[in-house]
Amino acid sequence: MNKESISDGSLSTLEPGISSVYLCQRAHSATYSYTLDDRLQGELDDFNGEQKKQETVGAFQKIPMVMPATDILMSAQRKSRNVLPTKGIANIAKRERNKGAKQLDALMKELSVPLRTYTENFPKRRDLHPYERSLIELTFGEGYYEQVLGRVDALRKRITSVGKQHASVCAKSTTKREAEERLTEGRKKLEESFQHGKHAIDDLVNVAKALRSMPVVDLHIPTLCLVGSPNVGKSSLVRILSSGKPEVCSYPFTTRGILMGHIVSNHERFQVTDTPGLLTRHDDDRNNIERLTLAVLSYLPIAVLYVHDLSEDCGTSVADQYITYKHIKDRFGDRLWLDVISKCDLLGKKEPISFSDADDDVAQYRRLGPEGALRVSVQSEIGVKELKERVHELLTSQMARIKASKAEHETQEIGTSVL
């Protein structure tokens, strides 16, 4: 997600209406001991189709371009005025009412057809991958996406109703003057109706821009996800590991969205994502920026590179980093995992934020970090080569997991088709 598309401030205004993100549990087909009839088989095929839809991402890149409301109206006005009466009508009154009815019908269609296209081609949230569903919720707020599409469809229905009504009235005109007056009145009513609801289209334009700017994650390519407290050095590591070029600054929450990059190692292509920093607090109290990180951890088949700053140069105490780390490790410990202690060249050079540790685990964490953690300094290039080697090993293992999962899924599909 480009940080320009959804600002920190705009996200925070949506925050009170956002509910927590819940992990989507998928149903598994039961084994049947009898032959399915055509109706049940059709339902099963529909179910499998829904499963396949939810197993892929990238729907946001397929949404249609949305024309601004002003452009739709101007185009409709121009095209409808060019509509001519049916050839061969000699009577002036009949010809005029024919032209008026046809132009009103054309104006109605030119205004309503684009709206129908949008409502039909924007993805239904229930068909999206859980990761993309969570992005919609965290970006716009609960129900906003459906609300905007609903308003656009309501506008389409209103335009269709008004257009049919006035085209019918115009078609019943008995004189040329009456037909002209009813055409003028019909145009006015249609344009007023459209203008009254045009804000829904403008809102849809903004929704489309935000969705298309979101990063695409290929579920079949191993993905390295960098996680940690704010300003611990995640973005700096992304820069040395991948093609991603996040902004690197010495203040917290530089990363306000999900940034994707790519790693090419030994002729293999991998993905790497930088995520917003996590503060030390309960998940229900997290803001939408932090919840983006939890969405990646919850819904994508990622390997975790957790970054620690024991120098406390990040501004977060070691004790608070430890609490956050333990929480994330306990919750997502089934992921492939690599711990990295960043800014290791600063260790011992700065006074710690907190001078005493009542907890022995925190004291040990302060001295050594997590067991097996790799010490790295981007500035001094300490441990960088080993980091790249360890990351390649991690992603290779992740590739093996993905292939095993895919093979298991294909086996289940074969078993289902046999039934």
Automatic annotation (TrEMBL):
Residues 223-279 form the FeoB-type G domain. The keyword GTP-binding applies. Residues 288-345 form the Nucleolar GTP-binding protein 1 Rossman-fold domain. Keywords: GTP-binding, Nucleotide-binding. Pfam families: FeoB_N (PF02421), NOG1 (PF06858), NOG1_N (PF17835). One of its GO terms (molecular function) is GTP binding. SUPFAM superfamilies: P-loop containing nucleoside triphosphate hydrolases. The keyword tRNA-binding does not apply. Residues 60-218 form the NOG1 N-terminal helical domain. This is OBG-type G domain-containing protein. It comes from Sorghum bicolor.
